[in-house]
Task: structure prediction
Amino acid sequence: MTRVIAPAKLTVSLAVTGVRPDGLHELRAEMVTLSLADELTITEGSTGLTVTAEPGSRADALGRDEGNLIVRALAAVRRTAAVHLVKRIPLGGGLGGGSSDAAAVLRWAGCTDAATALELGSDVPFSLAGGCALVEGVGDVVTPQDFVRREFVLLIPPFGVHTGRVYAAWDERRRSGSSDGGANELTDAALFVEPRLATWRDALGELTGRAPVLAGSGSTWFVEAGPAGIATGDLPWLDVGAARARLMRVHTVPAGWDGD
Result:
Protein backbone atom coordinates (compact mmCIF):
# COMPACT_ATOMS: atom_id res chain seq x y z
CA MET A 1 0.00 0.00 0.00
CA THR A 2 1.51 3.32 -1.11
CA ARG A 3 0.33 6.89 -0.49
CA VAL A 4 0.86 9.29 -3.40
CA ILE A 5 0.13 13.02 -3.43
CA ALA A 6 -1.40 14.61 -6.54
CA PRO A 7 -1.09 18.42 -6.34
CA ALA A 8 -3.37 20.72 -8.32
CA LYS A 9 -2.10 22.72 -11.27
CA LEU A 10 -2.63 26.48 -11.59
CA THR A 11 -2.27 28.11 -14.99
CA VAL A 12 -1.01 31.55 -14.02
CA SER A 13 -1.07 32.83 -17.61
CA LEU A 14 -2.28 31.30 -20.85
CA ALA A 15 -2.06 32.25 -24.52
CA VAL A 16 -3.41 30.17 -27.40
CA THR A 17 -0.67 30.32 -30.03
CA GLY A 18 -2.24 28.21 -32.76
CA VAL A 19 -4.54 25.39 -33.80
CA ARG A 20 -3.11 22.26 -35.43
CA PRO A 21 -4.77 20.54 -38.41
CA ASP A 22 -5.99 17.82 -36.05
CA GLY A 23 -7.86 20.47 -34.03
CA LEU A 24 -5.56 20.43 -31.00
CA HIS A 25 -4.74 23.83 -29.57
CA GLU A 26 -1.15 24.95 -29.07
CA LEU A 27 -0.52 26.98 -25.94
CA ARG A 28 2.08 29.02 -24.15
CA ALA A 29 1.34 28.90 -20.46
CA GLU A 30 2.98 29.46 -17.10
CA MET A 31 1.98 26.65 -14.75
CA VAL A 32 2.68 25.94 -11.10
CA THR A 33 1.71 23.17 -8.69
CA LEU A 34 -0.28 24.03 -5.57
CA SER A 35 -0.62 22.91 -1.99
CA LEU A 36 -4.21 21.86 -2.79
CA ALA A 37 -3.88 18.15 -3.58
CA ASP A 38 -5.71 14.89 -4.05
CA GLU A 39 -4.36 11.84 -2.22
CA LEU A 40 -4.16 8.34 -3.69
CA THR A 41 -3.63 5.16 -1.69
CA ILE A 42 -2.53 2.47 -4.13
CA THR A 43 -2.58 -1.25 -3.32
CA GLU A 44 -0.88 -3.32 -6.00
CA GLY A 45 -2.43 -6.63 -7.01
CA SER A 46 -5.99 -5.64 -6.11
CA THR A 47 -8.54 -3.86 -8.29
CA GLY A 48 -11.16 -1.15 -8.00
CA LEU A 49 -11.43 2.60 -7.51
CA THR A 50 -13.05 4.06 -4.41
CA VAL A 51 -13.46 7.74 -3.60
CA THR A 52 -13.78 9.90 -0.51
CA ALA A 53 -15.10 13.29 -1.58
CA GLU A 54 -14.28 16.44 0.34
CA PRO A 55 -16.76 19.37 0.28
CA GLY A 56 -16.80 21.31 -2.97
CA SER A 57 -14.96 18.66 -5.00
CA ARG A 58 -18.03 17.69 -7.07
CA ALA A 59 -16.74 14.10 -7.04
CA ASP A 60 -20.25 12.73 -7.57
CA ALA A 61 -19.61 13.32 -11.28
CA LEU A 62 -16.41 11.25 -11.24
CA GLY A 63 -16.56 8.12 -13.39
CA ARG A 64 -15.09 4.83 -12.19
CA ASP A 65 -14.80 3.03 -15.56
CA GLU A 66 -12.12 2.91 -18.25
CA GLY A 67 -12.66 6.59 -19.04
CA ASN A 68 -11.32 7.62 -15.64
CA LEU A 69 -7.77 8.95 -15.86
CA ILE A 70 -6.59 6.84 -12.92
CA VAL A 71 -7.87 3.69 -14.62
CA ARG A 72 -6.34 4.79 -17.93
CA ALA A 73 -2.98 5.54 -16.28
CA LEU A 74 -2.87 2.08 -14.69
CA ALA A 75 -3.57 0.55 -18.10
CA ALA A 76 -0.85 2.71 -19.69
CA VAL A 77 1.79 1.34 -17.31
CA ARG A 78 0.32 -2.18 -17.41
CA ARG A 79 -0.16 -2.43 -13.68
CA THR A 80 -3.05 -3.77 -11.62
CA ALA A 81 -3.93 -1.98 -8.40
CA ALA A 82 -6.76 -0.86 -6.20
CA VAL A 83 -6.86 2.91 -5.69
CA HIS A 84 -8.58 4.88 -2.97
CA LEU A 85 -8.83 8.52 -3.95
CA VAL A 86 -9.36 11.36 -1.49
CA LYS A 87 -10.77 13.98 -3.86
CA ARG A 88 -10.05 17.60 -2.95
CA ILE A 89 -9.39 19.21 -6.35
CA PRO A 90 -12.79 20.12 -7.82
CA LEU A 91 -13.96 18.55 -11.06
CA GLY A 92 -14.46 21.08 -13.83
CA GLY A 93 -12.50 23.71 -11.93
CA GLY A 94 -9.60 24.24 -14.34
CA LEU A 95 -7.10 22.97 -11.76
CA GLY A 96 -6.07 19.77 -13.53
CA GLY A 97 -7.29 17.32 -10.90
CA GLY A 98 -7.74 14.38 -13.25
CA SER A 99 -4.38 15.02 -14.89
CA SER A 100 -2.70 15.24 -11.50
CA ASP A 101 -4.24 11.93 -10.42
CA ALA A 102 -3.01 10.26 -13.62
CA ALA A 103 0.48 11.69 -13.12
CA ALA A 104 0.49 10.37 -9.55
CA VAL A 105 -0.15 6.85 -10.87
CA LEU A 106 2.70 7.25 -13.37
CA ARG A 107 5.07 8.37 -10.60
CA TRP A 108 4.01 5.42 -8.44
CA ALA A 109 4.79 3.08 -11.33
CA GLY A 110 8.18 4.72 -11.94
CA CYS A 111 7.11 5.99 -15.36
CA THR A 112 8.78 9.25 -16.41
CA ASP A 113 8.01 8.96 -20.12
CA ALA A 114 6.55 12.24 -21.38
CA ALA A 115 4.97 10.55 -24.42
CA THR A 116 3.00 8.20 -22.18
CA ALA A 117 1.89 11.17 -20.09
CA LEU A 118 0.78 13.11 -23.19
CA GLU A 119 -1.35 10.18 -24.40
CA LEU A 120 -3.36 10.55 -21.19
CA GLY A 121 -3.95 14.29 -21.62
CA SER A 122 -2.31 17.60 -22.44
CA ASP A 123 -1.90 18.59 -18.77
CA VAL A 124 -0.39 15.29 -17.66
CA PRO A 125 3.22 15.99 -18.78
CA PHE A 126 3.33 19.12 -16.61
CA SER A 127 1.66 17.35 -13.69
CA LEU A 128 4.24 14.57 -13.99
CA ALA A 129 7.08 17.12 -13.85
CA GLY A 130 5.52 19.40 -11.21
CA GLY A 131 6.95 22.59 -9.74
CA CYS A 132 7.02 25.65 -11.98
CA ALA A 133 7.30 25.48 -15.75
CA LEU A 134 6.70 27.13 -19.09
CA VAL A 135 4.40 24.79 -21.02
CA GLU A 136 4.14 25.01 -24.80
CA GLY A 137 2.86 23.11 -27.81
CA VAL A 138 -0.03 20.82 -26.93
CA GLY A 139 1.39 20.37 -23.44
CA ASP A 140 4.31 18.29 -24.66
CA VAL A 141 7.02 20.94 -24.24
CA VAL A 142 7.63 21.50 -20.52
CA THR A 143 10.52 23.80 -19.59
CA PRO A 144 11.17 23.83 -15.82
CA GLN A 145 11.62 27.21 -14.14
CA ASP A 146 13.19 28.11 -10.81
CA PHE A 147 10.81 27.49 -7.92
CA VAL A 148 9.44 30.57 -6.20
CA ARG A 149 6.94 30.34 -3.37
CA ARG A 150 3.81 32.28 -4.28
CA GLU A 151 0.49 32.54 -2.50
CA PHE A 152 -2.95 32.64 -4.08
CA VAL A 153 -6.58 32.92 -3.07
CA LEU A 154 -8.84 30.59 -5.04
CA LEU A 155 -12.59 30.96 -5.43
CA ILE A 156 -14.27 27.73 -6.54
CA PRO A 157 -17.86 28.29 -7.76
CA PRO A 158 -20.58 25.68 -7.12
CA PHE A 159 -20.41 24.47 -10.72
CA GLY A 160 -17.83 23.27 -13.21
CA VAL A 161 -17.10 24.27 -16.79
CA HIS A 162 -16.69 21.85 -19.71
CA THR A 163 -13.22 22.36 -21.21
CA GLY A 164 -14.18 21.15 -24.69
CA ARG A 165 -17.04 23.65 -24.93
CA VAL A 166 -14.74 26.50 -23.94
CA TYR A 167 -12.22 25.66 -26.65
CA ALA A 168 -15.06 25.29 -29.19
CA ALA A 169 -16.29 28.77 -28.21
CA TRP A 170 -12.74 30.12 -28.53
CA ASP A 171 -12.54 28.63 -32.04
CA GLU A 172 -15.82 30.28 -33.01
CA ARG A 173 -14.70 33.65 -31.65
CA ARG A 174 -11.47 33.37 -33.63
CA ARG A 175 -13.37 32.60 -36.83
CA SER A 176 -15.59 35.64 -36.25
CA GLY A 177 -12.58 37.91 -35.73
CA SER A 178 -13.04 38.39 -31.98
CA SER A 179 -9.90 38.42 -29.87
CA ASP A 180 -9.33 37.59 -26.23
CA GLY A 181 -6.75 39.40 -24.16
CA GLY A 182 -5.61 39.46 -20.59
CA ALA A 183 -3.66 36.89 -18.60
CA ASN A 184 -5.88 34.06 -19.83
CA GLU A 185 -7.06 34.13 -23.44
CA LEU A 186 -9.80 31.60 -22.74
CA THR A 187 -11.65 33.93 -20.35
CA ASP A 188 -14.18 35.46 -22.75
CA ALA A 189 -14.94 32.05 -24.28
CA ALA A 190 -15.51 30.59 -20.81
CA LEU A 191 -17.82 33.47 -19.90
CA PHE A 192 -19.79 32.81 -23.09
CA VAL A 193 -20.16 29.12 -22.22
CA GLU A 194 -20.97 29.78 -18.55
CA PRO A 195 -22.22 33.36 -17.92
CA ARG A 196 -22.52 32.69 -14.16
CA LEU A 197 -18.73 32.94 -13.98
CA ALA A 198 -19.01 36.73 -14.13
CA THR A 199 -20.91 36.86 -10.83
CA TRP A 200 -18.16 35.01 -9.00
CA ARG A 201 -15.38 36.96 -10.70
CA ASP A 202 -16.97 40.19 -9.50
CA ALA A 203 -17.52 38.82 -5.99
CA LEU A 204 -13.87 37.81 -5.61
CA GLY A 205 -12.74 41.15 -7.03
CA GLU A 206 -14.91 43.03 -4.56
CA LEU A 207 -13.67 40.91 -1.65
CA THR A 208 -9.97 41.25 -2.44
CA GLY A 209 -9.73 44.55 -4.31
CA ARG A 210 -7.82 42.79 -7.10
CA ALA A 211 -8.63 41.67 -10.62
CA PRO A 212 -9.32 37.90 -10.63
CA VAL A 213 -7.85 35.62 -13.30
CA LEU A 214 -9.57 32.51 -14.60
CA ALA A 215 -7.77 29.21 -13.96
CA GLY A 216 -7.45 27.35 -17.26
CA SER A 217 -10.87 26.97 -18.87
CA GLY A 218 -12.60 27.60 -15.52
CA SER A 219 -14.49 27.55 -13.30
CA THR A 220 -12.00 28.62 -10.60
CA TRP A 221 -11.00 32.27 -10.24
CA PHE A 222 -7.83 33.31 -8.43
CA VAL A 223 -5.88 36.32 -7.27
CA GLU A 224 -2.26 36.36 -6.16
CA ALA A 225 -1.85 37.36 -2.54
CA GLY A 226 1.59 38.93 -2.93
CA PRO A 227 3.85 40.24 -0.16
CA ALA A 228 1.15 42.49 1.30
CA GLY A 229 -1.36 39.66 1.58
CA ILE A 230 -5.13 39.91 1.18
CA ALA A 231 -7.51 40.61 4.04
CA THR A 232 -10.05 37.81 3.47
CA GLY A 233 -9.84 36.59 7.05
CA ASP A 234 -10.44 32.89 7.49
CA LEU A 235 -13.59 32.79 5.37
CA PRO A 236 -13.99 29.27 3.95
CA TRP A 237 -16.95 30.23 1.77
CA LEU A 238 -18.24 33.25 -0.14
CA ASP A 239 -22.00 33.70 -0.52
CA VAL A 240 -23.76 35.48 -3.37
CA GLY A 241 -27.49 35.39 -2.83
CA ALA A 242 -28.45 31.78 -2.16
CA ALA A 243 -25.33 30.40 -3.88
CA ARG A 244 -22.07 29.58 -2.13
CA ALA A 245 -18.51 29.26 -3.48
CA ARG A 246 -15.50 27.82 -1.73
CA LEU A 247 -12.64 30.14 -0.77
CA MET A 248 -9.18 28.69 -0.33
CA ARG A 249 -5.71 30.02 0.40
CA VAL A 250 -2.97 27.99 -1.28
CA HIS A 251 0.71 28.31 -2.13
CA THR A 252 3.02 26.90 -4.76
CA VAL A 253 4.94 23.72 -4.02
CA PRO A 254 8.14 22.40 -5.64
CA ALA A 255 8.50 19.37 -7.86
CA GLY A 256 8.56 16.18 -5.82
CA TRP A 257 6.43 17.65 -2.99
CA ASP A 258 5.03 14.86 -0.82
CA GLY A 259 2.37 16.81 1.05
CA ASP A 260 4.40 17.59 4.20
Summary: The chain has a mean pLDDT of 93. The first strand starts at residue 2 and ends at 19. The two ends are 19 Å apart (CA to CA).
